[in-house]
Design goal:
This protein has 225 residues and is α/β, with parallel strands linked by helices. The chain is 32% helix and 16% strand.
Length: 225
């Protein structure tokens, strides 16, 4: 993902190209995901059999100019969105049918961000080819709780390349998509940098067999689906 300003982000910016942030690749990588004590859902919400909306944003799709992402990023996140639709369309444990998926591209009006959970999928990139690791960004405690649950599940499903600090750059912390989701009332919002496409080992895990499914199944586990 490139760390440049997104449309409608102005001073806040958005994680759009680590190539323009040489210090971002120097952030520490932690071998395991962190824990969080914040609950994903309140007891009332857990007991309520209502339809929930999962909003999945495909980072940079379908831009052809400006902040278009790290090479290969749009293709990867499009595959993740397709896999989300496939997984949620399958029969599963009771409760899965209560989740409806809304897939949005990079630039959508505010109302498209409304729902019960939001995640923007991206991949990192750096001129430093040794830079590696996944990371998450969020705005509040509900977003943090969902992001931490995704990290733990991502690791359990086979992500072995470690994690950078949460919100490890200002642009990750202030990503315009999480801001718009929260403004639309979708409090459980986070951005997932699934790994570095510019790092050989990260890329092998991301684009090799099971890489896309790992990202999606971690999300479903995090949501308790």
């Amino acid at each position: 993902m490139t760390h440049e300003n997104e449309p409608n982000a102005e001073a806040e910016g958005g994680p759009e190209n680590d190539r323009s942030l040489p210090d971002a690749a120097d952030a520490p990588v932690h071998p395991t995901a962190e824990e969080s004590d914040a609950p994903l859902w309140s007891q009332d919400e857990e007991k309520r059999p209502t339809v929930r909306i999962l909003v999945v944003q495909m980072g940079h799709c379908f831009r052809t100019s400006g902040a278009t992402g790290t090479p290969g990023e749009q293709k990867f996140v499009k595959a993740v969105a397709d896999a989300c639709a496939e997984e949620l369309g399958m029969s599963g444990p009771p409760g899965r049918e209560l989740w409806h998926l809304r897939v949005i591209k990079a630039d959508e009006p505010l109302e498209q961000y409304a729902g019960d959970a939001f995640v923007a999928f991206h991949c990192d990139g750096s001129t430093n080819q040794s830079a590696h690791g996944a990371s998450v960004g969020y705005r509040n405690a509900p977003g943090q709780s969902l992001a931490q649950a995704w990290k733990r599940a991502y690791e359990l499903h086979g992500w072995s390349r470690g994690f950078r600090d949460d919100n490890y750059t200002d642009n990750l912390k202030k990503y315009y998509g999480t801001r718009m989701a929260v403004e639309a009332g979708n409090q459980r919002a986070f951005i997932a940098e699934c790994g570095f496409l510019t790092n050989r080992d990260d890329k092998d895990l991301l684009t090799g067999p099971g890489g896309v499914k790992r990202v999606v199944r971690a999300l479903l586990d995090a949501l308790g689906i």
